[in-house]
Design a protein that fits this description.
Helices cover 19% and strands 29% of the residues. The chain has 472 residues and is an alpha/beta fold. The longest helix is centred in the middle third of the chain and has 21 residues, at 235-255. It is elongated and about 105 Å long. It binds uridine-diphosphate-N-acetylglucosamine and calcium ion.
Length: 472
């Protein structure tokens, strides 16, 4: 008869001060490929299909709590009001984890950990039934990490750098900050921790030796890829982790078919989804929850945030696009700026030096040159002439412009919103439109041209013998 599966809780430590980051923002909310650092262990736990996840918040914890509640509603937030060290941190959540048989402790600042590694750790626990499994790794430069000291009797303990002897400092096997505990064993030893060390903190690392001494059953899993256990403590660590994660993400997309011209200058965030046949030119950045469909191409030095590109859509670089849907076979750029909820239906085109904000462009709409379209709805088939501006702000509030289907908007038209234009209507170039234009009508709002004979000669703006303007 097989035993009932043991219950498991996952506690992510995210309450520390992170002083080495030199920032007013909590370390675990520092952006790493534009997602907070704590996103990564949360995502690793989710991908490994682990339930019962809690984040421990403390220093500037309101911001962490707000993030977790918004983005990870299934995850609990537990408070460590005073930050007295990692051991104290885990003890602060004892009321929560004592309901489980086992507890996986992840450090919020170890973002490269892979879900497969968490699963392997759990398997190791199931196969060998120890009281604790801890993860170590071997590095050339162990500075900043706790050293794993193997004892003569086969036991193990972790010595923090500031408490280590000269000899221990040379140890290249270090603690990764990821542990799996039998909660009964952990409960027994955690109240026996003291802060009798250089930092005056309660170290979680001391529980390893305490369990080893009392129950004698600690396993050390040596992680083969030391990158996975990189701890992010400083701005330099953040940059190193960004580079490693980016390489990993681009590699994954390329294995699925992405054609990335220059991985060295391309940046892709962890929430970006890509269908197989996408082309990225050099220098492209894609962030947030973006989706690129089959046959899309993104031009050099473009930045996309929360963008959905439908099949066959093209962005000519450089362009900056955030919060937008680019329809099937639609085109954007070069040098276009789209932001705050833009919807381009299939075949629509936004061209050179055009800014579009909070607007919908119907099927086949063209706005190819030098325009600002804000708070506008534009019907299918309409052509927007060069230099068109929707004057959506009257100094107090924002107002909408509605332009119908199959319209012809003459170059340099100013729409003073709120204003609308019916279907099949037109505006004369250079018009300042302040009144609604009915279906099929031409809106013309400009001075009639007057020609003043002989003005050029009288004012001396004539061409001299060399063909230059002005006096000899
Ligand atoms: C810790 C380990 C070290 C290991 C390294 C791996 C201890 C004493 N040392 O050192 O052996 O090599 O991680 O990356 O555990 N935290 C809290 N509450 C606190 C203090 C910390 O929640 O009171 C959280 C931090 O937010 C962080 C994690 O615990 O996510 C680790 O804390 P940190 O101060 O970064 O420990 P390290 O010095 O890196
Ligand atoms: Ca750390």
């Amino acid at each position: 008869m097989s035993e009932l599966p043991q219950s498991l809780g996952v506690l992510i430590l995210a309450a520390g001060k992170g002083v080495r980051m030199h920032s007013g923002k909590p370390k675990l909310l520092q952006p790493l490929l534009e997602e907070p650092v704590v996103y990564y262990p949360l995502n690793a736990a989710k991908t490994a299909r682990l339930k019962n996840v809690a984040v421990l918040a403390g220093h500037k914890g309101e911001a962490i709590e707000e993030y977790v509640k918004r983005e990870w509603p299934e995850v609990e937030v537990i408070w460590q009001r005073e930050q007295l060290g990692t051991g104290h941190a885990v003890k602060s959540a004892e009321h929560w984890w004592k309901q489980f048989d086992r507890l996986l402790v992840l450090s919020g600042d170890v973002p490269l950990i892979r879900p497969e590694t968490l699963s392997a750790m759990i398997r190791c626990f199931e196969d060998t039934a120890p009281r604790c499994v801890m993860m170590s790794f071997v590095v050339n430069d162990p500075s900043g990490y706790g050293r794993v000291v193997r004892l003569a009797d086969g036991g193990v303990r972790i010595v923090e750098e500031c408490d280590a002897t000269e000899e221990e400092l040379y140890t290249q096997e270090v603690n990764g900050g990821v542990y799996l505990f039998d909660t009964t064993a952990l409960s027994t030893v955690i109240s026996r921790l003291n802060s009798d060390n250089q930092l005056g903190e309660y170290y979680l690392t001391d529980t390893v030796q305490l369990i080893d001494d009392t129950e004698g059953d600690v396993r050390v899993m040596v992680c083969e890829d030391p990158q996975e256990l990189l701890g992010v403590n400083t701005p330099n660590d953040l940059a190193v982790a960004s580079g490693m994660l980016n390489k990993r993400i681009i590699g994954l997309h390329m294995r699925n078919g992405l054609k990335c011209m220059d991985p060295a200058t391309t940046w892709i965030g962890p929430r970006v989804e890509m269908e197989p046949d996408v082309i990225l030119e050099p220098g492209v950045q894609i962030w947030g929850k973006s989706h690129l469909s089959d046959g899309c191409r993104v031009g050099a030095w473009s930045t996309l945030r929360m963008v959905r590109m439908e099949p066959g859509a093209t962005v000519f670089g450089p362009s900056v696009i955030s919060d937008a849907v680019i329809g099937e076979n639609a085109e954007v750029g070069p040098v276009a700026f789209l932001r705050n909820d833009v919807k381009m239906r299939s075949g629509a085109k936004v061209g050179r030096f055009v800014e579009v904000k909070n607007s919908t462009l119907g099927e086949g709409v063209k706005a190819l040159h030098l325009s600002y379209l804000g708070d506008a709805t534009i019907g299918r088939g309409t052509n927007i002439g060069a230099g068109t501006v929707t004057c959506n702000f009257n100094g107090v509030s924002k107002n909408a412009t509605s332009i119908g289907e199959d319209c012809f908007v003459g170059s340099d038209t100013m729409f003073v919103a709120p204003v609308s234009m019916g279907r099949g209507a037109a505006t004369a170039a250079g018009s300042v439109i302040t009144k609604d234009i009915p279906d099929g009508a031409l809106g013309i709002a400009r001075e009639r041209q007057t020609n003043i004979d002989g003005w050029n000669e009288r004012n001396g703006v004539i061409r001299n013998k060399n063909g230059k303007k002005g006096d000899d």
